[in-house]
Amino acid sequence: MAATKKTKLLLMFPKELTGEPATWVLVKEYDLKINILKASINYNIEGRLLLEVEGEPRKINEGIAYLKRSGIKVEKNGTSTLIDTDRCIGCGMCVAACETGALTLEPYGKVQFSAEKCLECMLCVKACSQRIITNAFDRF
Amino acid sequence: MAKTYREINEKIASGKAVVVDAEEIIDIVKDEGLEAAAKRVDVVTTATFGCMCSSGAFLNFGHAAPPIRMSEIMLNKVPCMGGLAAVDTYIGATSESEDRGWEYGGAHVICDLIDGKSVLLEARSPGTDCYPTKEIKTYIRLDDINEAYLYNPRNAYQNYAAATNSSDRRLYTYMGILQPRYGNVTYATSGQLSPLMNDPKMRTIGMGTKIFLAGAQGYVTWYGTQFNSAKPASANGIPIGGGRTIAVAGDMRAMSTDFIRPGVLEKYGVSMFVGIGIPIPVLDVEMLKCLAVEDKDIWTVLEDYSDRSGADATIRKVNYAELKSGSIMVNDRMVRTSPTTSLMKSKEIAQILKEWISSGEFTLTEPVMSFPENHALKSLKIRKVK
Ligand code: SF4
Ligand code: SF4
Is B130 a catalytic residue? Predict the structure, then answer.
């Protein structure tokens, strides 16, 4: 069996597709292990789904191609952590909050974010002194 | 070889002064040696940009017709001090709004005013014969009112204890979030770039020193509250942990929110990030020795913030090179570190101040009064109240 890899996908459903059984298809047709990290799907309104997907790299790519064909927008290395970096003052308060090392400061600089390391816990949203970190799923 | 303030200011006026920041000077001294560098370099700029709770502003609203003697005052629902003259107030940075709590406080009002925004003024009074009005509600802007000056009783702490947490509970503090079981360490100050680290005995910083304050030219107006010049120090004179402080003032109309910002600290409250830059004249070799100080020689204590009993909560001594490296040893384990002072903004301010001085816009002032030596910190005694 080929080696598997893990990746995070952020799926954005236009309102006419909120009924599409996308996760079921990914499991059934592409043999992927799926962990739903965050979901906000309201029928007839736009929806968002943050998945952790594990499987053969080839199958993951085919799965992504299927999603795109269906009209679903896919962001690889997706996250619900949105940072308005322009307004960052480099204070470091969010870095103290982040236990996974997803947030660091550039030398003499602003915050740096790694979606790969992020566990989507949203503690940084509360910790940011400038209130510039938001949860993308909050708006739904 | 010694230089006077006057000689340095003459060089600044003629555009010939050599100005560098407190980090650049480190390598210059290594390359050129103390003697030669002291001759060549005239001014070293220092800066910090951290949360400074002891900040606020004096405002005078002007009189309405008929006039009111304000005793209860709110700006955007943030309570201000009503214990001054009829239309004077002091708004403290940490005062929280009645409607939004710590999400909006005094620091936000100050910054909204600096940004030219309209702010809701609500005031009440019992009314007197000379001030008959009992209630007003209006919008004010910085341009409409009389004086508006920042007056911060305690800023630019010379040094400060780093923080960690031994308990099983996550702590929300003014030093940021502290994770349980020594999960992280936070530290304040910009270390080798910080103003009072570079002039440990405050030989050149005193009453009347002109400084960069929040984008404007401001002044040191007194020694800061909790000023402690009796703290045990390293051989280089820098106190190990909290030391000296300064009070500062400046005109809000000349300030920019690029260099002063409200800060919201979850489950703690509102504070204010204040940008301060202080130029230090290279008077002689002795002064330059202080200015060449490096992070590795600046020591502070690491304290356990879960122990607030007042007992000594010191875990170890640590220097700023270690703190800035991203991790330090705490009880035989590497623990990640992060700052609460913006190094990005500190550096930016040190560079701007350097520009101001190099271009002749900003000259140095000799303090008109030095601040006290051996001035120790008292703690509050709790006496039995009848
Ligand atoms: S959501 Fe949690 S893990 Fe992700 S960056 Fe924020 S604090 Fe770190
Ligand atoms: S807490 Fe907010 S402002 Fe401070 S470094 Fe993090 S993202 Fe930037």
Answer: yes
